[in-house]
Amino acid sequence: MTSIDEFVAEARTWLEQNATPRQDADASRASVSVFHNLPADEERALLDRVCAWQRLRFDAGYGALTWPESDGGAGLTPAHEEAFVELEREFDTPGQHELASVSAHLIAPTIDLFGTPEQRRRLVRPLLRGDELACQLFSEPSAGSDLAGLATRAEQRGTEWVVNGQKVWSSGAQFAGWGELIARTDPDAPKHRGLTAFLLPMDTPGVEVRPLRQMSGGASFCEVFLDDVRIPDTWRLGEVGAGWKVTLATLGFERSHSGANTELGGGYRHLVATARRLGRLDDPDVRRGLAEVWVREKVGELAATRDREARLDGAEPTSIGSLRKLAWAQKLKQVSEVAVTVLGNRLVVDTGDDVYQWTEHVLGAPGYRIAGGSDEIQRNIIAERVLGLPTEPRGDKDVPWRDIPR
């Protein structure tokens, strides 16, 4: 196996041939939106650039570094991946889009765990390469944080399932070709046991996607309506009634991956560049805040590396992901607080320069206290499954979903 030093040298050469070095000055003008605030055509163009870069990396051997060669990966260690991530930050790249990240880091590994050979052949490599994009069809208006209480129904009719219901907060659904759908297949079973997962082609008749406008300006989230949508049983993901296990795996990947996503909405690098541009680097409050953000980012990266190593050893996602996700949400909150310290009244008055865009971060960051399970849900999981504290009383635990008051 290539040593880290040899790998970095080769990767640097490749990056120098395919990208331009990133300047600190650029970071102060880079987007710091937590959720994209772009017209639909511009967001589609951004997503196309992100996927094109993803394909370029993948074909060069840098797009799925820890995945096995059978899936188009490089079969390298998490240390190699971490080294490439650090190196890539030195270059100007198209950035990130949540749908591309969800596709490659959440749904691809879920299909790898639970998918049939045909499902894996059809989707894992395309999702990793950026040829296919997939969204999550989990949350519902009536379920809130109680994801297991979802009401979207899937009824089996011969070799097909007919699905009716509504999903919401599905990031990037308007651009996705596929959706990972969780639906209720047995209303007579307790809510956690009557669920089944499916892979849904988003162009299936009966699927309607409506983007939702956010207070930060963009329309990254969508609501998705499912009206007599027919899904072949060949696209069922996992066993009938085992949808909660599939759901937890995807959420585990999401929570574990959260801590490593240091560029989302801006972070230490962007704050430093903005502070330097405004002449605030000598302010002790600014310096202290920057140091705290840097430490939190490094801890998140190390935690993500540890999780990847465990997964490569064969471990499935665990409840430790809730710690990662909670820390990530707190990191975004901390970045907002430091931005307020750096900008002062520039945060609320548009003076015509680029620093006012930090407003989009401050308005968007609270959303991640809900996304992927609210902070309160994460604390319950940590308390019960990590610390071993007594569980909360749950009156509906063994009650058939059909009989739960709603």
UniProtKB/TrEMBL annotation:
Does the keyword Flavoprotein feature in the UniProt annotation? yes
Q: Which family does it belong to?
A: Belongs to the acyl-CoA dehydrogenase family.
Domain (Acyl-CoA oxidase/dehydrogenase middle) ranges = 135-229
Cofactor or coenzyme needed:
FAD
On whether Oxidoreductase is a keyword of this UniProt record, the answer is yes
The UniProt entry, under PANTHER family, shows: ACYL-COA DEHYDROGENASE (PTHR43292), ACYL-COA DEHYDROGENASE FADE34 (PTHR43292:SF4)
Residue ranges occupied by any Acyl-CoA dehydrogenase/oxidase N-terminal domain in the UniProt entry = 52-131
- This protein's superkingdom? Bacteria
The record's listing under Pfam families reads: Acyl-CoA_dh_1, Acyl-CoA_dh_M, Acyl-CoA_dh_N
Q: What is this protein called?
A: Acyl-CoA dehydrogenase family protein
InterPro entries on file? Acyl-CoA_Oxase/DH_mid-dom, Acyl-CoA_Oxase/DH_mid-dom_sf, AcylCo_DH-like_C, AcylCo_DH/oxidase_C, AcylCoA_DH/ox_N, AcylCoA_DH/ox_N_sf, AcylCoA_DH/oxidase_NM_dom_sf, Mycobact_Acyl-CoA_DH
Q: Which residues form the Acyl-CoA dehydrogenase/oxidase C-terminal domain?
A: 241-387
Q: Recite the UniProt keywords alphabetically.
A: FAD, Flavoprotein, Oxidoreductase
